[in-house]
Amino acid sequence: MTITKIDSPEIMMSQVSMCYKTNSTEVLALKEVTVNIQKGEFVSLLGPSGCGKTTLLRIMADLLQPTSGEITISGGTAKEARLARKYGIVFQSPVLYDWRKVKKNITLPLEMIGLQKEEREERAERLLELIGLSKFKDQYPWQLSGGMQQRVAIARALAIEPEILLMDEPFSALDEFSRERLNEELLSIWSKVGSTVVFVTHSIPEAVFLSDRVFVLSPHPGRLSKVVNIPLPRPRREEMRNSPEFYQLISDIRQSFEGV
Amino acid sequence: MKWQVYRSRWVPTIMLVIGLLFLWEFLSWLLLTLDVPLAQSKVPYIHELVITFTQYSGTLFSEGSVTLANASLGFLLGAVGGIVLAILMSLTKWLEQLAFPYAVASQMIPILGLAPIVYGIFRDEQLARILIAAYTTFFPVTLNMLRGLRSAEPSSLELMYSYAAKKWTIYTRLRFPQALPSLFTGLKIAAPLAVTGAILVELMGATKGLGVLMLRNLYYGPSHNYMFWLTVLFAAFLGIVSYFIVTVIERIVTPWQPEFRKSGGDK
Ligand SMILES: Nc1ncnc2c1ncn2[C@@H]1O[C@H](COP(=O)(O)OP(=O)(O)OP(=O)(O)O)[C@@H](O)[C@H]1O
Ligand SMILES: [Mg+2]
């Protein structure tokens, strides 16, 4: 399968391997993973627990150096991309700062890029509205439930309208309803901002609903076992979750797991 | 509702205190009737203490405020010094390796020995008091501040890293606020120590302060026994007050700390 394109991909990883070494053991978390992600594309990393999804994401974010292999982000190194503040990251845990109230947590990255106060406030208010936590803006993080905290973390990542959005199971702490609503919200933001999104999830329906392509990883060692195109039209709508194509894609992906 | 909660919490405490006071009075009476030598120096009557206090409270407060003022100045000096040293040590590993052994060793010098030396050097009782108070404050503050600065979680640091934050920004946005609870632990240990330090220097020879009062009343013997006891109690009271003041400031500065979180229910 070839995609005709003029530019080189936004994220290019070739033959990336990651081996965690501790005193006594070595864990091969990733083995020769090669992925190309286009600018503005929405891809999901799907796989069972421990197959190296977080590891892969952290390598993309320049938070981890791979043992071997090449990685290129918009033509440069991952470090250059990080220094240029291209990333918005949602970690697997919320990582909110205890001493900052909800709104101040969201404005943190905006302070870092040196935005004026009014602009910071305005963006924070808008995002609070979006995640449905306007009423909680002056609370401390520990006064929020786990799912609410995670929503704040998402708002914080979106605040700088990053070129590359890396999300590690952002909705796993949410109930089914909030999750589906935020799925749609995420897509609507994405269509406006045009970020390249790498989205880690355990949920097959979620991956299918959101993505242009789903990268299926298999464990021990973590490898890229399959890439599934999702040809569903955009904008994606809630009704599509009930379409036969949707179910077909889900069962295709599920089968690829059984082969593992 | 609220009142009941308070009452149920306070009643046992008050009962306990009253009980202890009665026990003390009884013991005092017992020693006197048994003709134990210097009975009142060992366990003085509380009512006598109260009477003495009403007579001499003015003196106690005026001398106490001199001590407290010197202790506070020294405490501030020591706290600032400790914080600065901790920041420098956290910034540069070699400075920590260089300075830390000296900081530890400095704590091995007994204040009782150091005080006359400092006094001998500066020949100024005020300055000597401040310096000794600073000296006692300095170490617990440095130690706790350094630990606090190091306590930032890897994930919190990673977030900063992902923003390509400068070293100093990481300090202002993450490490300093994160270090505050630990810093306050150090300050709470140090505050009463500063008071004790200041009193100690006063014992070495000064013209004003609680230590002077203490020494004088000890010197005059049994006739000033109640006053001596009162001075000691008042010194302890100052220590508690200093601790309490730091606690109040802590609550204002770091309302987000787990121990200040309301557990829910009552507002
Ligand atoms: N810091 C580390 N040191 C040693 N081994 C690690 C470390 N981090 C991850 N691993 C190992 O690497 C493998 C992949 O871990 P990773 O966190 O990437 O999995 P994951 O796919 O994100 O799992 P989950 O879905 O549970 O989050 C695991 O087997 C794990 O034990
Ligand atoms: Mg993970």
Automatic annotation (TrEMBL), chain A:
**SUPFAM superfamilies in the cross-refs:** P-loop containing nucleoside triphosphate hydrolases
The name of this protein is ABC transporter ATP-binding protein
Task: Name the source's superkingdom.
Answer: Bacteria
Q: Which InterPro entries match?
A: AAA+_ATPase (IPR003593), ABC_transporter-like_ATP-bd (IPR003439), ABC_transporter-like_CS (IPR017871), ABC_transporter_ATP-bind (IPR050166), P-loop_NTPase (IPR027417)
From what organism does this protein derive? Answer: Lysinibacillus halotolerans
Q: Which residues form the ABC transporter domain?
A: 11-240
Q: Which PROSITE patterns match?
A: ABC_TRANSPORTER_1, ABC_TRANSPORTER_2
GO MF, any single term: ATP hydrolysis activity
Q: Which UniProt keywords apply?
A: ATP-binding, Nucleotide-binding, Translocase, Transport
What Gene3D superfamilies does UniProt report for this protein, alphabetically?
A: P-loop containing nucleotide triphosphate hydrolases
Q: Does the keyword Nucleotide-binding apply?
A: yes
Automatic annotation (TrEMBL), chain B:
Superkingdom to which the source organism belongs:
Bacteria
What membrane topology does the annotation report for this chain? Multi-pass membrane protein
User: InterPro entries under this entry?
Assistant: MetI-like, MetI-like_sf
Where are its TM segments located? Answer: 12-32, 68-88, 100-122, 183-206, 226-246
Question: Which BP terms does GO give this entry?
Answer: transmembrane transport
Alphabetical GO CC annotations of the entry are:
plasma membrane
Identify the residues that the record assigns to the ABC transmembrane type-1 domain, covering every copy: 64-250
What keywords were assigned to this record?
Cell membrane, Membrane, Transmembrane, Transmembrane helix, Transport
Q: What is its main location?
A: membrane
Subcellular compartments = Cell membrane
By its UniProt entry, which PANTHER family does this protein fall under?
Answer: ABC TRANSPORTER PERMEASE PROTEIN HI_0355-RELATED (PTHR30151:SF20), ALKANE SULFONATE ABC TRANSPORTER-RELATED, MEMBRANE SUBUNIT (PTHR30151)
Regarding protein family, the annotation reads: Belongs to the binding-protein-dependent transport system permease family.
Q: What is this protein called?
A: ABC transporter permease
Source species: Lysinibacillus halotolerans
